[in-house]
Structure formats: structure tokens, C-alpha cells
């Protein structure tokens, strides 16, 4: 292989991404695995009174209280079905374009979870294989370009774009994190 062919091959390999496939209702979606810290079975979630329906609740992961968004509720207006293939995607908060920020890179950015249905496969493809569909989805800015395959269309979801200013202020008020100490985890409080 010539140097030019090798360089082109290396460039194409760098443009390829790994995506987690999931469904919302009957439609297929994909998110870049680079934005996912961990994929978990859905833990017991504590609901929070007064929150929108798409805030599924909170749970504790590695001594940190983690807020969880329900992508089905946010996108389709109904809660995610609790099936064996329903998963919680754990991600770190970093504003769009700031994924390489020091906090995210050092794993000190706050965690948040996203519930998705039928997360059962991955897709390795070129990022360029997703193309804009020409329609603007202002209310659903996290829904991105689409890719066509033998089963139809797959739409990309930006996990980071789920956190609009409104969502950010709900989940991370004043960017305060609740980290559990051993006494707080045991239910003790101090005044």
C-alpha cells in the first residue's frame, strides 16, 4: 500500500465512530460511545417531587447522587418501558464543544444518567455516513443527522445536547454536587 493510500486509510479509520444503538418506541437511534462513561442495568431510582416527567429520579453511583433523564419521556411523552433491554447510559456533564475540558477529562465533571429502551447493539461506521435531513428540530436539538441502512433510518442523539440551560439548571443548580459521606449514606444528618 502506498503512503497516500495508507494516509487515506488512516484518515478514514479516524473518522469512524462506535455508536450504541437503542430505540425510542419503534424508531432506532444511536449515540457516540465516547460520550458514555458506563452502560448500566436500570437501578432503583428515587423519584423527585416537582420535577418534569422526563426527570426519572436519582440514584447513588460511586458515592455521588446522579440525576437521571428519561429520553422516552423527553422525546415521546411517555416513560421508558422497564424491560431487560432498557439501560441507563451514564455520562459526564460537559457543555457541547467542551468535551475535552479539564473537568470532563479528569472525571470530576458531574455524572448524569439517561434511560433508553432496547439498547442491545453497537454500530461502527463513519461519522460522515450520518447526514442532515433538512428539517430543523428546535425543540429537540439533541436529535441529529440520520443514517440509512437495510432496516431503515438511524438518528444520532447527542447526549450532551440533552442538557439545555433549563435541564442544566434543574439537574445541577449552581453546579453544586451532592457527594455522600459515610454518615450521609447511613442516613445521618448534621445541622
Automatic annotation (TrEMBL):
Pfam families: CheW. InterPro entries: CheW (IPR039315), CheW-like_dom_sf (IPR036061), CheW-lke_dom (IPR002545). Residues 16-168 form the CheW-like domain. SUPFAM superfamilies: CheW-like. It comes from the Bacteria. SMART domains: CheW. One of its GO terms (cellular component) is cytosol. PROSITE patterns: CHEW (PS50851). GO terms for biological process: chemotaxis; signal transduction. This is Chemotaxis protein CheW.
